[in-house]
Amino acid sequence: MGGAGMSAALLVQALRQPASVAALDGAGWNALIAAARAERLIGTLALRIGDGPVPEPVRRIWADARREAERETRQALWEADRAAAALADWDGPVVLLKGTAYAAAGLTAGEGRFIGDLDILVPRGAMADVEQRLIAAGWEWVKQDPYDDAYYRQWMHELPPLIHRDRDRMIDVHHTILPLTARQKPDADAMLAAAVPITGKLYILSPEDRVCHAAAHMLADGDLAGGLRNLWDIHCLLADADLRKLDARARRHGIAPHVRQAQRLADALYGTGKARLTLWDRIVLRRLLARDGWGGESRKLLRSAFYIRSHWLRMPPLMLARHLLTKWRKGHRPG
After folding, report:
1. Among 75, 147, 195, 294, which residue's beta carbon has the most beta carbons within 10 A?
2. Distance from C-alpha of 277 to C-alpha of 27, rounded to nearest angstrom
3. Residues 74/47, Cβ–Cβ less than 8 Å
4. Sign of CA dihedral 103, 109, 114, 119
């Protein structure tokens, strides 16, 4: 089957122009479905394409994907409800983030989305109180390693992950959106102050802060694994944002270059394709499209470079060297 980027390019084309799948042959359908599964976009793709001119086996795959996405949405919303119940007596809002937030607010970005952990944002000063209330309600620590626990508490933007002992579902409790060691310092208090109520205890970030968070998560923190889904989120979220307010908000959070790049990339892949791309934009696009014709990861050197870059973004050089050496000694190896 074709070279690097083939299946990812088919996925992007199908999301941007669903009617384009009518021209696919059997190999094309296999590549498209493989990439959609690998990027966790198959539920979204199934809803975008629908049951139009697609082969009967694909209809069954679409039906399974839609059912799985609906199941994950129900489960995610139940977890949000349980977290809200556990924190009912705590005097503060529970701000939902990422997939659960999109689903709870009925946003386009949540349609067909597969949802993993529950992510919430609370004030930094409330972290200890929130943690104890969640533990009392059945959540337990995942990180048993003292180094990992201490690293999270001192340097990260969230508590060490917690998992519920009965439901086996994880919650990540954030007090800001980037690690404390990152060069950018988003104003988490401003995000909390501008949060919009969904129902009762649960809130969601403002439309502009949702884009800022998604862009920061994708471009100022991670290694771009799963980047096509993250960029689809951004493409959908931009439709609800006031672009003038977004620029001001991005500057306030210190991530204006990342938000502007996210806008260009979203336009390049899912929009009009008229954005003027920089050389760095084109390198990022190569990383985003790094899948072979079977949906597997390709361009190993490029992926490794972005993995190293993700750590470089999170911490100063000496701290990075100590951290990577410690993790290496403990047997961790990059994927």
Report:
1. 195
2. 31
3. no
4. negative
Helices 42-49 and 56-86 pack at an angle, to 10 degrees, of 120
Give the pLDDT band of residue 4 (cuts 50, 70, 90): very low
> Alpha-carbon distance 282 to 270, whole Å?
15
When pLDDT is cut at 50, 70 and 90, the band that residue 316 belongs to is: low
Q: What is the pLDDT of residue 317?
A: 64
DSSP bridge partners of 196:
204
How many CA atoms within 13 Å lie on the side-chain side of 214? 33
| Domain assignment of residue 11, yes or no | yes
Q: Is the pTM of this model over 0.70?
A: yes
Summarised one tens digit per residue, pLDDT across range 235-280 is 999 999 999 999 999 999 999 999 999 999 999 999 999 999 999 9
Count helices and strands (H / E) in the chain: 15, 7
86: which 2 tokens?
Answer: 């556990």
Task: Name the domain count of the chain.
Answer: 1
Which residues are 72's β-sheet partners? none
215 close to 88: Cβ distance less than 8 angstroms: no
Is-contact 292 4, C-beta < 8 A? yes
- Detail the DSSP E strand segments found in the chain: 94-97, 118-121, 139-141, 162-164, 170-174, 196-199, 202-204
* Radius of gyration of the chain from its Cα atoms, rounded to whole angstroms: 20
Is residue 277 in a domain?
yes
Domain encompassing residue 242 = 6-329
- Tens of pLDDT, residue by residue over 72-114, are 999 999 999 999 999 999 999 999 999 999 999 999 999 999 9
The answer for residues whose C-beta is within 8 angstroms of residue 109's C-beta and 6 or more apart is 102, 232, 233, 236, 237
- Among 149, 219, 145, 147, CA closest to 178: 219
- Count CB-CB contacts under 10 A for residue 9: 17
Q: Which tokens belong to 160?
A: 């060490």
Residue 40 lies in a domain: yes
Q: Residue 31, SS3? A: helix
Residue 1 lies in a domain: no
